[in-house]
Specification:
It contains 17 helices and 12 strands. It has helices spanning 16-27, 47-51, 67-81, 86-92, 103-108, 111-120, 136-148, 166-171, 177-182, 191-200, 246-256, 273-282, 297-306, 327-334, 365-377, 379-396, 399-417, and strands at 2-10, 31-39, 58-60, 130-134, 155-159, 185-188, 232-237, 262-267, 289-293, 309-312, 339-342, 357-360. β1 (2-10), α1 and β2 form a beta-alpha-beta unit. α1 packs across α17. The radius of gyration is 23 Å and the shape is globular.
Length: 418
């Protein structure tokens, strides 16, 4: 099969769940092309990006900032593309064709034309067996490009988190109506998001829950560590944004105070870094809490082997942004770590409260502190939870089985749309 992936940014250290699908499909002998709006940081990438030479398979939307710059560049681009694709180019530049549709503004601002260019430059390689769009807005982009003729193939859209939470608050609950009508298959990553799609009017026969997963063979289950009087190591991995809830984790560590020896390490970066640095100083926990920035995958794997507890205190942001099911939780559980997280989004579909970890209400600092204290004081419980978590991830979030299922889903869809 020839498969096109439409994503926001590539490469992206925080989106290994997309990378795992791409490499899994390549391993199974399929051809994959990646189309991204933005180029990510190529100085620090997941090793699989280089191992599979994925940048050679990636094509970017190159759109000048500002409408005037876009207009100035049009003549040269028309000269190189119009003769090969006159109908498609004409459609992308004709605002009157889309006067009464959501594409009208895209045509007027020339975004439609520039979005189509990476596909037009590929000449006769625009037809795919599957077009897989990650996030709802890329599903809309894929449908728009398919409607103009710039792209061809059955359209699959995966919904993750923000695209079905605060994105709807910003653009309205009818934003996906045209996508639900024209798209071929929708893959929410949790049962929660399936219910939300149904509420939004998506036809049930077009929905198939398909979870993100991890390669459990890359995460060896760490052996039990004697605690004695050693410092307890707690780890959080994720972007420093509101929905990750790191602020509440830091407050919980501060609440535990000096009564226990704790080192709390936070891997990740983002817009809240300065605020969190100030909070650490204000709460006088600089000797216990460290912001490590982004780390390479090998470094993350090493940290997961050394720490004692994984903490993921996700919350719903003030703008309504919500998680899907954090892959970092799957990775920690696969390593045999006990996890403390929140009753948020699809997380309860991954963590069985009291069995493979603990779940507390969002923003409940007291609850986080209490569960952390319990695991610190009862390491034998953490060991039991870690084993249960590993078994659950192996059974339900094994990327190899999920990718086999994805190929089967693709093949059935191709047959259905013939």
């Amino acid at each position: 099969m020839r498969i096109a992936f439409l994503v926001d940014q590539f490469p992206s250290l925080s989106e290994t769940f997309i990378l795992n699908q791409i490499t899994g499909l390549l391993d199974r002998g399929h051809e994959v092309d990646i189309y991204a709006d933005l180029q990510g940081d190529t100085a620090k990438v997941h090793p699989d990006v280089e191992r599979y030479k994925l940048l050679n398979r990636t094509y970017y939307t190159r759109m000048p900032l500002g409408r005037m710059r876009r207009i100035v560049a049009i003549p040269v681009l028309l000269f190189t593309n119009f003769s090969h694709h006159p109908l498609v180019v004409g459609r992308t530049l004709n605002p009157f064709k889309y006067k009464f549709s959501k594409y009208g503004e895209q045509a007027v601002l020339l975004r439609l034309f520039y979005s189509a260019l990476p596909f037009l430059k590929r000449r006769n390689k625009r037809a795919y067996d599957i077009i897989h769009c990650h996030y709802g807005r890329n599903g809309m982009r894929g449908l728009m490009l398919r409607d103009t003729g710039a792209l061809q193939g059955p359209l699959v859209t995966t919904f993750h988190g923000f695209d079905i939470s605060n994105y709807l608050q910003k653009y309205g609950e009818h934003i996906y109506a045209h996508l639900f009508e024209g798209g071929d298959l929708f893959q929410p990553i949790s049962e929660l998001w399936k219910r939300r799609l149904l509420e939004l009017g998506c036809p049930e026969d077009k929905i198939a829950v398909h979870r993100m997963g991890i390669d459990c063979t890359k995460f060896s289950c760490r052996p039990p560590k004697p605690r004695n009087n050693d410092c307890v190591q707690i780890l959080t991995i994720g972007r420093l944004v509101e929905k990750k809830g790191v602020e509440y984790a830091i407050r919980a560590i501060a609440q535990l105070g000096k009564s226990r020896k704790i080192q709390y390490q936070i891997v990740g970066d983002g817009p809240l870094r300065e605020y969190l640095e100030d909070l650490i100083i204000q709460l006088e926990v600089s000797d216990q809490v460290n912001l490590l920035g982004w780390k390479q995958q090998s470094e993350v794997l090493d940290l997961l082997q050394k720490v004692d507890i994984l903490l993921a205190p996700s919350v719903t942001s003030q703008e309504g942004d919500r998680e899907g099911i954090p892959v970092t939780l799957m990775e920690g559980m696969a390593t045999g770590l006990p996890v403390v997280s929140t009753l948020h989004s699809g997380i309860p579909e991954l963590i069985e409260d009291g069995i493979s970890g603990f779940l507390v209400p969002e923003r409940e600092v007291d609850g986080l502190a209490q569960k952390l204290a319990y695991l610190i004081d009862h390491p034998e419980v953490g060991l039991k939870m870690g084993r249960a978590g590993r078994a659950y991830v192996e059974k339900h979030y094994n990327i190899n089985e999920l990718n086999d299922r994805l190929v089967d889903i693709y093949q059935k869809l191709i047959e259905a749309v013939k």
